[in-house]
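Narrative of activities, Objective 1.

The group set out to show that a structural description can be obtained from nothing but a protein's sequence at a throughput compatible with the screening campaign. Below is one input-output pair from the validation batch, recorded exactly as produced.
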Amino acid sequence: MIDLGYSLSRRFPDPPQTDYRTADVHTLRHDLFCGDVYLADVKTDRELSTAWGWVPVLDFAWALCDIMEQIDRDPRGNRASVPQYAELDFTESTDRMIFERRFGWVEVEADWQPADEPPLSFNHKLLRREARDFLHDLIADLTDMHDGLADNPAVWDLQARFPRV
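Output recorded for this entry:
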């Protein structure tokens, strides 16, 4: 079982003059909604989480959905034996999360985890579904908190590009 979550930072609030209705993609992805994120394997009680307070959580959700599509390009799908890789880098640091898909399983590791700790391992189909659910749940939370965000065309495009599965 997979658990994806976030918390917004009080140390890095969004600028009070922000017009969420007209914010561009760069602003939505990199300048707003800072906090921390985690990806957990509930079955093994292990997680990868940030504790920096400045991670743009919408960008994380967006990038995670992109990555799930990127590592699903082999037409053989779950039968593909050749590993497919993707990285999620955190803009304000050199830290990254590395995703490797093989035979329908995705291993996820991070630069900041101990070297002797094995990567988290998830079924690709399940991780893809959870990533999209996380994105839609996050957008619902953010639109409840920020007037005008639900009317932003970039948010509409994002939801259309990654519908719930």
